[in-house]
Amino acid sequence: MKKILITQSNYIPWKGYFDAINQVDEVILYDEAQYTRRDWRNRNVIKTAQGTAWLTIPVQVTGRYFQKISEVKISEKKWNEKHLKTLNANYARAQHFKELKEFTEHLYVNAVMDYLSEINFWFLTEISKWMNVKTPIQFCDSYPAEQKNPTERLVAISKQRGASHYYTGPAAKVYLEEDRFVQENIEVCYLDYDDYPEYPQLFGRFSHNVTILDLLFNTGSNFYSHMKSFS
What we know:
Blueprint: E1 3-7, H1 15-23, E2 26-29, E3 43-48, E4 51-56, H2 79-91, H3 97-109, H4 116-130, E5 137-139, H5 150-160, E6 165-168, H6 178-182, E7 187-190, H7 212-219
Helix pairs in contact: 2-3
């Protein structure tokens, strides 16, 4: 049995994204998909004293309406320094912030790539290492793109990787053509993002829809107690 997750790269995504990575044998980043504005590709949510706020990587989008995620370039060089300062300012009082301070600086000081996909890959792989998640992550451009139908492309990649189970988020139920997977003896498995336990969190009302860094700053090495696939 081989479980595979094919997904688009996100910037410092929420805990459910990392739970998904931890549940499978391989992750393929499908960054040949079209870039969508106001999405999770280049931004995520943090908590502040004024409420939740977006932490956004500035990217080049003007006149580039049909560019792929892998083609998106960064438009401001010192974005990483600003994000690090913002995190330091808002999470300094988090219980385990000091425990992660050096690691967080490592993440941002070295996030000096030109393309969004490269930056997302950096954060995904480094945070996974810190969490002791050993699932390999790679881009889909290693596999020939002969299929025009999106589902057929996903099936083709799954077949090339010898997958028996294809994992995806619940939102995919709307558009995924499951029968294409069934024809290739690949079982479609929908991830369950409900009923996550809460954890001690700064600034008022609890929110699940925040970056994984919020969980790590607040729980440290005990993060696994607030995840689903870790034991």
